[in-house]
């Protein structure tokens, strides 16, 4: 549970940073919603589909966690590309002057 909470908080922090960045607002807002729904699903998963088919919920829980890790990776990669692109534009404008 602690690992899931840490992943959820990491995603939330990255999502807030992305939402504050002009090129990543949509991805940031989607990730904020995802980060807020993740703990709700994690806590209530024991009550969903009780019985022999509960393994479906457990598998969905794993996939939701992997999706959060994927979103963290996507946000960080796009953020770094965006920042590298703006720093290169700044260097090129200095060369023109």
- Helix share of residues? over 70%
Mean pLDDT score: 89
Number of strands: 0
Query: How many structural domains does the protein architecture include?
Result: 1
DSSP strand content: under 5%
* Helix count, DSSP H or I runs of 4 or more residues: 3
Separation of termini?
Answer: 55 Å
Overall shape: it is elongated
- Give the radius of gyration: 18 Å
Please specify the SSE layout and strand pairing:
Elements: H1 2-20, H2 25-44, H3 54-96
Entry keywords:
97 residues, mainly alpha, 3 helices, elongated
Overview of the molecule:
With 97 residues, the chain is mainly alpha-helical. It has one domain (2-96). Helices cover 85% and strands 0% of the residues. The chain is built from three helices and no strands. It has helices spanning 2-20, 25-44, 54-96. α1 runs antiparallel to α2, α1 (2-20) packs parallel to α3 (54-96) and α2 (25-44) packs antiparallel against α3. It is elongated and about 65 Å long. The chain starts with a helix and ends with a helix. The model has no long low-confidence stretch (mean pLDDT 89).
């Amino acid at each position: 549970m602690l690992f899931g909470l840490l992943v959820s908080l990491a995603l939330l922090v990255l999502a807030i940073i992305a939402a504050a960045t002009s090129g990543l607002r949509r991805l940031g807002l989607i990730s904020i919603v995802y980060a807020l729904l993740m703990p709700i699903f994690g806590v209530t998963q024991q009550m969903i589909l009780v019985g022999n088919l509960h393994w479906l919920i457990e598998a969905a829980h794993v996939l939701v966690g992997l999706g959060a890790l994927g979103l963290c990776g996507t946000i960080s990669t796009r953020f770094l590309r965006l920042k590298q692109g703006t720093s290169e534009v700044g260097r090129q404008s200095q060369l023109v002057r």
